[in-house]
């Protein structure tokens, strides 16, 4: 069972929003339903929200733009994006703009509840990462550490952000493939190996240990250094 959370459900479909709010309230959470990005910004209790369930196809300002602004203002807030946009490049954009979890509609209430429980376990870890020696500025695409600052590509920044937000800093190989090759033109493990090698080199240039990312045989990779996202 997830810890009791303060959750904002941002969804313009009235029936769906009402159903999600009711289901999460039954699980003991404090839940507020909000119909648009503009209403989110005007909401007086936003600073006290732990987690946001966010539809991307909102009227007016879309969910990606809202997520980016919320992430800048409240870096510790958990964001679950729920959308019909399922292409790899859409997922990449979601993670680059602040998603902790990206879910493709239709999403059952049971699956959403499980995602919230997983993210609630992760929130405490993300707070601890705030003290990390290494920082990633996702807007300027700059990685900074004890040895100085290093420029990274947009794909490298998206991958680092995904590592930082993942449970225990771990990503499966298929997740890395989607983030590094959004067009799915060269889907292969060699693509992942090259990207991880380059990313490790960037991290070492910023001052990390010699092995900032370790391979998990038959599964994926783990970021071994604390990283703060800005």
UniProtKB/TrEMBL annotation:
Response regulatory domain residues: 6-120
Top-level lineage group: Bacteria
GO molecular function, one term: phosphorelay response regulator activity
OmpR/PhoB-type domain: residues covered: 124-225
Alphabetical list of InterPro entries matching this protein: CheY-like_superfamily, OmpR/PhoB-type_DNA-bd, Sig_transdc_resp-reg_C-effctor, Sig_transdc_resp-reg_receiver, WalR-like, WH-like_DNA-bd_sf
GO cellular component: cytosol; protein-DNA complex
SUPFAM superfamilies named in the record: C-terminal effector domain of the bipartite response regulators, CheY-like
Gene3D superfamilies: 3.40.50.2300, Winged helix-like DNA-binding domain superfamily/Winged helix DNA-binding domain (1.10.10.10)
DNA-binding region in chain numbering: 124-225
Any single GO BP term: regulation of DNA-templated transcription
Residues recorded as bearing 4-aspartylphosphate in the entry: 55
Keywords: DNA-binding, Phosphoprotein, Transcription, Transcription regulation, Two-component regulatory system
Protein name per Swiss-Prot or TrEMBL: DNA-binding response regulator, OmpR family, contains REC and winged-helix (WHTH) domain
Source organism per UniProt: Devosia enhydra
């Amino acid at each position: 069972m997830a810890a009791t959370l303060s959750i904002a459900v941002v969804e313009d479909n009235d029936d769906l929003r009402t159903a999600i709010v009711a289901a999460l309230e039954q699980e003991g959470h404090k839940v507020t339903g909000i119909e648009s990005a503009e209403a989110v910004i005007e909401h007086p209790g936003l600073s006290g929200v732990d987690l946001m369930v966010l539809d991307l196809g909102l009227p007016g300002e879309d969910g990606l733009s809202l997520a980016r602004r919320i992430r800048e203002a409240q870096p510790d807030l958990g964001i679950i994006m729920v959308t019909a946009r399922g292409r790899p490049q859409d997922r990449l954009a979601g993670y680059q703009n602040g998603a902790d979890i990206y879910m493709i509609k239709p999403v059952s209430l049971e699956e959403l509840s499980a995602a919230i429980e997983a993210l609630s376990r992760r929130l405490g870890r993300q707070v601890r990462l705030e003290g990390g020696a290494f920082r990633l500025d996702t807007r300027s695409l700059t990685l900074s550490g004890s040895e100085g600052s290093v420029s990274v590509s947009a794909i490298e920044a998206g991958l680092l952000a995904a590592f930082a937000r993942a449970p225990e800093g771990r990503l499966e190989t298929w997740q890395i493939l989607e983030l590094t090759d959004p067009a799915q033109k060269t889907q292969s493990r060699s693509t992942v190996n090259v990207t991880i090698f380059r990313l490790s080199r960037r991290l070492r240039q910023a001052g990390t240990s010699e092995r900032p990312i370790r391979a998990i045989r038959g599964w994926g990779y783990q970021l071994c250094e604390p990283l703060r996202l800005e």
